[in-house]
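dude i think i finally got it to work??
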Amino acid sequence: QVQLAESGGGLVQAGGSLRLSCAVSTRTFSKYGLAWFRQVPGEEREFAASITWSGDISYYGSFVQGRFTISRDNAKNTVDLQMSSLKPEDTAVYYCAAKEYHSGSDYRAYDYWGPGTQVTVSS
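look at this
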C-alpha cells in the first residue's frame, strides 16, 4: 500500500510563494508518476502539475502559466510543488497523487492520494 502525506500549506499574501511537499511511502518510488491537483468546495479536482517516474518530463495545468514548478527527489521519496506569484484564486486544498508509470492530467486515473493540504491566498 502506498501512502502519501502533504505538507507546507498555509496562509500567504497575494504575490507570495509557498512550497508544498509530499512524502510517499513505497519501496518502488521510482516507478511512480506523481501529480498535484487542487480542489475548491463544489468544484471538480483540477490538475496543477505532474512529473514522470523518470523525472525528466513535467506537465502543468493551463492556469499555472509558469508560476509553479514540480520536482521529485527519488532519494527522499518526495515530490514538491514550488508555487510563486500566488493569486487569491489559487486558494484550494492541494493534493498529491501517484500512479505507476503514469503522469496524466485526469485525476480519475490516479490510484493513491494524500489527505490534502490547505493553501489560502489573501488579497
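The longest strand covers residues 92-100.
im so relieved honestly
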